[in-house]
Write a structure and sequence with these properties.
By secondary structure, the chain is α+β, with helices and mostly antiparallel strands. It contains two helices and six strands; from the N terminus they run H-H-E-E-E-E-E-E. The chain has two domains: 42 residues; 84 residues, Immunoglobulin-like. It is 24% helix and 43% strand. Strands 1-2-5 form a three-stranded antiparallel β-sheet, with no helix packed on it. A three-stranded antiparallel β-sheet has the order 4-3-6, with no helix packed on it. A hairpin with a 3-residue loop joins strand 1 and strand 2. The protein is elongated, with a radius of gyration of 26 Å. It starts with a helix and ends with a strand. The relative contact order is 0.20. Keywords: Membrane, Transmembrane, Transmembrane helix.
Length: 134
């Protein structure tokens, strides 16, 4: 029995009987870690992604259109801010709620208008978080 196992594990291109079992063991460990990671990601469907679609800036306000990707029934709360050239925040809104999608889609497009204290250079989504899982 041991002779047969020894002959199976004696793989010359993997370094012979002393090295081959370790390569095979590490391969199994990597495959198991990938399977566990994939299962964990699939079991946490409340992922949230967001990205800027368009913005428009005037001297007194900034308008931002952005996409939020989430579960169709989830509710997200987002914060949008406008910054001046010196990186100072000149406008911020924290009350932006992206509710459940009525059409069952994962991506919801939202437009926000901020009043700014002076002209902004950039307007961006500062943060989005799932407020209620769906």
């Amino acid at each position: 029995m041991f002779a047969m196992v020894r002959r199976l594990l004696d793989i010359p291109w993997l370094g012979g009987i002393r090295v081959a079992p370790w390569f095979l063991l590490m391969g199994l460990v990597i495959i198991a870690a990938a399977a566990i990671g994939a299962a964990w990601i699939q079991s946490h469907p409340e992922r949230l992604n967001y990205g800027t679609r368009a913005y428009r800036i005037t001297p007194a306000q900034a308008e931002l259109t952005f996409d939020v990707e989430k579960s169709p029934n989830a509710v997200a709360e987002c914060t949008v801010r406008a910054r001046a050239r010196d990186n100072e925040a000149v406008g911020r809104r924290t009350d932006i709620v992206v509710g459940p999608a009525l059409d069952g889609r994962r991506v919801t497009t939202t437009t926000v208008v901020l009043t700014t204290s002076r002209e902004a250079n950039v307007v961006e989504v500062e943060d989005c978080q799932i407020a209620r899982a769906g």
